[in-house]
Amino acid sequence: MEGADAWVLISTALVLLMTPGLALFYGGMTRSKSVLNMLLMNFYCLGIVPLLWVGFTSSLAGNGTGAWIGNFDLAGLSGLDGQGLLFTAFFMTFAAITPALISGAVADRMKFAAWAVFVPVWSILVYTPVTYWVYGLDADTGDLIGFLGERGSLDFAGGTAIHINAGVAALALVLVLGKRKGWPKQPMPPHNLPLVLLGTGLLWFGWFGFNSGAAPGIGGLDLTATALMNTFLAASAGMVAWLVVERLRDGHFTILGACSGVVAGLVAITPAAAFVGGLAGIAFGVVAAICCYFAIQLKGRLGYDDSLDVVGVHMVGGIVGGLLIGFFADTNILGVGDPEAFDEGLFFGGGADLLVEQAFSIVFVLIFSFVVTFAIAKVLDAIIGIRIDEADELNGLDGSEHAESAYDFGAAGRA
Amino acid sequence: MEGADAWVLISTALVLLMTPGLALFYGGMTRSKSVLNMLLMNFYCLGIVPLLWVGFTSSLAGNGTGAWIGNFDLAGLSGLDGQGLLFTAFFMTFAAITPALISGAVADRMKFAAWAVFVPVWSILVYTPVTYWVYGLDADTGDLIGFLGERGSLDFAGGTAIHINAGVAALALVLVLGKRKGWPKQPMPPHNLPLVLLGTGLLWFGWFGFNSGAAPGIGGLDLTATALMNTFLAASAGMVAWLVVERLRDGHFTILGACSGVVAGLVAITPAAAFVGGLAGIAFGVVAAICCYFAIQLKGRLGYDDSLDVVGVHMVGGIVGGLLIGFFADTNILGVGDPEAFDEGLFFGGGADLLVEQAFSIVFVLIFSFVVTFAIAKVLDAIIGIRIDEADELNGLDGSEHAESAYDFGAAGRA
Amino acid sequence: MEGADAWVLISTALVLLMTPGLALFYGGMTRSKSVLNMLLMNFYCLGIVPLLWVGFTSSLAGNGTGAWIGNFDLAGLSGLDGQGLLFTAFFMTFAAITPALISGAVADRMKFAAWAVFVPVWSILVYTPVTYWVYGLDADTGDLIGFLGERGSLDFAGGTAIHINAGVAALALVLVLGKRKGWPKQPMPPHNLPLVLLGTGLLWFGWFGFNSGAAPGIGGLDLTATALMNTFLAASAGMVAWLVVERLRDGHFTILGACSGVVAGLVAITPAAAFVGGLAGIAFGVVAAICCYFAIQLKGRLGYDDSLDVVGVHMVGGIVGGLLIGFFADTNILGVGDPEAFDEGLFFGGGADLLVEQAFSIVFVLIFSFVVTFAIAKVLDAIIGIRIDEADELNGLDGSEHAESAYDFGAAGRA
Amino acid sequence: MKLITAIIKPFKLDDVKEALKGVGVQGMTVSEVQGFGRQAGHTEVYRGAEYTVEFVPKVKIEVVVDAPQEMAVIDAITGAAQTGKIGDGKIWVTDIGGLIRIRTGERDADAV
Amino acid sequence: MKLITAIIKPFKLDDVKEALKGVGVQGMTVSEVQGFGRQAGHTEVYRGAEYTVEFVPKVKIEVVVDAPQEMAVIDAITGAAQTGKIGDGKIWVTDIGGLIRIRTGERDADAV
Amino acid sequence: MKLITAIIKPFKLDDVKEALKGVGVQGMTVSEVQGFGRQAGHTEVYRGAEYTVEFVPKVKIEVVVDAPQEMAVIDAITGAAQTGKIGDGKIWVTDIGGLIRIRTGERDADAV
Ligand SMILES: Nc1ncnc2c1ncn2[C@@H]1O[C@H](COP(=O)(O)OP(=O)(O)O)[C@@H](O)[C@H]1O
Ligand SMILES: Nc1ncnc2c1ncn2[C@@H]1O[C@H](COP(=O)(O)OP(=O)(O)O)[C@@H](O)[C@H]1O
Ligand SMILES: Nc1ncnc2c1ncn2[C@@H]1O[C@H](COP(=O)(O)OP(=O)(O)O)[C@@H](O)[C@H]1O
Known about the structure:
The complex is a heterohexamer, with 3 copies of chain A (415 residues) and 3 copies of chain D (112 residues). Chain A is mainly α. Chain A contains 14 helices and 2 strands; from the N terminus they run H-H-E-H-H-E-H-H-H-H-H-H-H-H-H-H. Chain A has helices at 3-27, 35-62, 82-103, 112-135, 147-151, 159-177, 193-212, 215-250, 255-269, 280-302, 310-328, 353-383, 390-395, 397-402; strands at 63-64, 137-138. Chain A has a two-stranded parallel sheet. In chain A, helix 7 (193-212) runs antiparallel to helix 8. With 112 residues, chain D is an alpha+beta fold. In chain D, the strands form 2 sheets. In chain D, strands 2-5-1-6 form a 4-stranded antiparallel β-sheet, with helices on one face. In chain D, helix 1 (13-22) runs antiparallel to helix 2 (70-81). The longest helix of chain D has 12 residues, at 70-81. Chain D is elongated and about 60 Å long. Chains in contact: A-B, A-C, A-D, A-E, A-F, B-C, B-D, B-E, B-F, C-D, C-E, C-F, D-E, D-F, E-F. The interface between A and C is large, with 65 and 63 residues. Strand 6 of chain D pairs antiparallel with strand 7 of chain E. The complex binds adenosine-5'-diphosphate (3 copies). One adenosine-5'-diphosphate sits between chains E (7, 35-39, 56, 58, 86-90) and F (27-29, 62-64, 101, 103, 112).
């Protein structure tokens, strides 16, 4: 077994842990009466999506002969060798966390039964084709054949395919779902910020696997180290930048701000981790943190209730990262060294071509994901209803949807 | 250093983390007045068991010349090379977590001093011989020589040796210990379900190391990937199956149900991880979740207070997994490919032999572990008493046994 | 990619996770009104220190031509190959956690703005030179050239450079900062002990990477397994020893005691992980736990408010470990085998030379770090003030410094 | 002086607080309580075991006012806390013998 | 009308609730409190530092009843909450000037 | 008998408890409450959104004493809880019709 295999194995475990990490990150931000609902919306994705993935979506999303969608040749794990099986497991964790990202936007008001249906449907109708467009490989040659990947836009670990895709889907879903009762008048502060910090720590930890797990097979240790360092620096710089911005604007350094900055930086570097080098990760973190901070302020003005800022952080952070590739992509970085490997960015003599291509793929995915998600939500709403009763919303979803209470600290037990 | 070595190293860390993970999984389920007691019962196992393990139980459990128990040749870490030392550390984490599994059954009422003695005694008298029977190797040839392993029953990562063993020991212990005051009339709901989710996430994460950490040396990347994929699928399928069953029976999807299903699936796949392939992991998860769900309902009827369902999940899940091997074992899976490697299961043309052998080893361990654990508990009870005072039980063990409080959220401090 | 590279990669992730782990470990021990402040003091170090590290402190701390400080040749990540980049990332996690260690001493009363400045200044003026003295390499030959390392004192993973350094800095800082209002009269018990257990679990998990991440390049699998086993045993033995001591002295086994013992053992084995073998790790754990237990009792008598016992655990544990090397260092351990590799300890025929050298380097760092930290604190206090207002301290720093509340469990929301 | 105690639904606290401000109340004391009454509790299920939770989260408000304000305060609370559904809660009034402002030692009406 | 306030041991809440139902009480309000009294608190130890916690967790029950029911309610509570050990708690009774059901505006006996 | 209720700043609880012991009080009941009054609340900011928290954490103390002790208790509380800054809290006194010790059934002065 190669060292590279060991790194993919552990990366699979690392990215798996990101979904519980995300659950805690989001769960800590909800109100205490609906935290279990948030945890289950996330955790459920680790249940249902893998079953689809080994069933057929992995095959459809990864391997084919055309530009638009893969085939069923690898369905049911058929015909895979050890590497193939390992990478199927590795990317299974990505498929699972992507719909989980959406959940933060619909906190505190979505019927769980509707979510239970939404996730597999969305995974099949949106995640699978978008992933193929970006990463689909020719079943024979192994070359990129999905139409976005083939045109030359770059997305290393899932900026467009995952963060933008989930972020804009979140927007579509909340537009159908509506606002939480009382929002934005009523304060709805996080109920457990230590959980948010814990979730952020687990996300950062896992993100090393997310962004560099696939690198050894492409560029060996050099590229893996590059991807890891980029990831690290973007997170650190994102944290510091957010802290500075909020201190200047709101007068305080906050733990929620630090965590948000880390996630914004990580989102932005995701598509770029193996295409930029040197200290570029810092630029990604700083720009993403600033843009996401201001993007979040928009929801109040535009009037959509993106409860935990999935749009503001994942969609916007993903767009920032995708576009910055158009400036910073550099074939001279450690681990690449082949000037033909990909187009270079504006700052490295590549002209605007890559930037245009990045913008094209981003816009394409924004539109596709928004439209299809909106349609799914509308259909679900018509058939089973996606919004819970007002009384249940006021009392909290944990009791009404799940017949559980998150916490019971009282000496009197249930009294 | 090989990639395989790196994977065993990290697997050691992964399985180590499972004990704190288990502590939180169990701790979140207790009442808030006894959570620290539960945490310490678990964590303590990571303190005391390793000292025994490097002292002599590792040697006794692993290496010998007879069918029943090993020798002291490797006691005190003597004579080990790098691989030997590494595997001693790896399996040390297994030795530590096994008695910790038992703790969930005795929540909220056992004297900590009695537990402090029980753990090393049980580890020596029960865990060590059972492990030798299943995994003991001939000191000269390196072949399986423990009598269960040698007869041909299969247990890859510890279904019989760990989960069934601990599960039935839990049953014996609670029969001696008695019920919690007020059980089952008084509701005793979990006090902190986000902790349960966190614990489950850490367990799942660590279980990848648990089930596939030893695979590279046996079947390289192929077998490792097989074991990892099986583990992943059993967990996912267990979650979904449990959610479906409880929705049908109780009307709700719950976070505790999702977590329970994950653990049930993981327990069941543990013995089978390197003996089954394809989509079999899904079958293990589904069957285990259904069986464990119904097994748990029995305790009310049979009247034993297995507080956090160690019997219902670990014993039953272990039995399910052990027996399913008799159906699904397949030497054609990725990473094996040698038709002589082990007996095949009923579904793969192997006849009923393996199934019988599995049942034999399960029953043997059930009886041995039950009897010896019961005897240990009785003796301990006679000498130092294993049950705390009624008043202390009502006030909670954290105060009376540990002189601590788990939480203090009040503005008035200790007021 | 080598297995060794995979292990360094994952070790980087492991040590990264230690900072959130430390944040939770400390955060659980503060009062609930200041937990976010504690979390942010820690987490912030993962933001700011990496930016300095890739900027220039990594270069200054690691590579040079003289005995006292490195040069700027590798500043800005220039000129690094894959291994160089990877190790820069790996050691970046060490640089980040070191000032974070200090934070526990100043809990509940330090201005965050002052901390925000203190961390980078301390990192540059104290951490960077001390690290160079211990680990600085000759830019040409790659030999140890920093004056402490070159003299022959041993510090494998950061006992002197990290734990003693941070521990004594904590002492200097609290002497300038003063005591918490009401200390020691007013009880200030931990507000969330499950968080402390979780933090300890994450620290232990990460510490495997901390102590053995750099070992493969030096002594391959053998030395890595040695370092891992030492780490494991010191933690286990530290836990058991602390539990025994507190049971004898205070009458109870406590979860805080178990966690403290683990950390004490881990601190003590840190400098020694690759220099001792066999069962020596147990000795380190036991001695460290006993010494730290009693050292903590001193603060009440000496009257300095080291709130979460950074001095008592990290400084004292580091000194214990550093000195024990003078007894236990052994060139015959698995993974070394070269009698010239380093001086042997008293118990292994090496005479007192090593012990003296260890003492020298410890005293040198104690004095340097204390003096410079004291000066930094005094200057900061004069310029911006390091202590918050009394009213803010009474109300808690989370509100006054960060405009956040850690928890909101109430049904009435913010009511 | 009168002590007016109200038990209300938690999500009505903000409205009641504003209504009380509206009638000139300058201070009040609030706590989280559990109520038992006509309003049904709910059922929880843990691993198949069903429990009935008979208590419902409520908020208790205590306001001390000068006697003549009693009716205005009661009306303000009733108006703001009413949803018309079972469980809206209760108000009761107690005579108190005196009120003191700790800060100044002022008494009764001056202390409000 | 009478407001009956009882401070009891937390684990007795269920029994007291049932006893109150038994004498026809249809509503009550419960909260978690800390009691100080003859019953000793306990000691906690953190890293060798010992603290005495003088407060003991208690549950407070408030029931408003029509005056004639007073004795029945007191007896029900006393009967159910008594363990005979120190710390069983107290009951006290206050006259209240009026009770209002927020939902309907009903008053006094009708509002119970 | 008198029920004396005091709302104080949380960090003053210890001092008040000692002061009450000092005047011979042998029991009291304490709870965490939120106060609204002249003392300003504070502002919280989450991702740039600012909220005003108008409630301030307070501690409520309830002491039942024999009528003659009323003034001593009030003075003890006032003395210990006073910081002179806004928000020190209130004390109010209610007549109670009777006190019972659950353990023994003792009444009134004997039950204290
Ligand atoms: N007799 C009572 N004494 C004290 N509190 C009561 C009493 N009856 C009801 N309550 C409180 O009022 C709340 C609402 O009462 P409930 O009977 O559910 O509805 P409603 O007030 O609409 O009739 C209860 O949850 C409880 O807190
Ligand atoms: N004078 C008092 N005023 C208010 N509450 C009291 C008073 N005395 C006791 N209590 C409450 O009653 C509880 C039980 O009192 P305690 O003296 O411990 O036992 P007992 O009631 O058996 O004499 C105390 O914890 C406290 O909550
Ligand atoms: N009218 C009132 N009724 C009940 N509680 C009150 C009333 N006024 C104030 N309080 C309580 O007293 C606390 C202190 O009151 P505040 O007006 O802030 O300061 P001060 O008592 O110094 O004038 C409040 O937080 C609240 O808990």
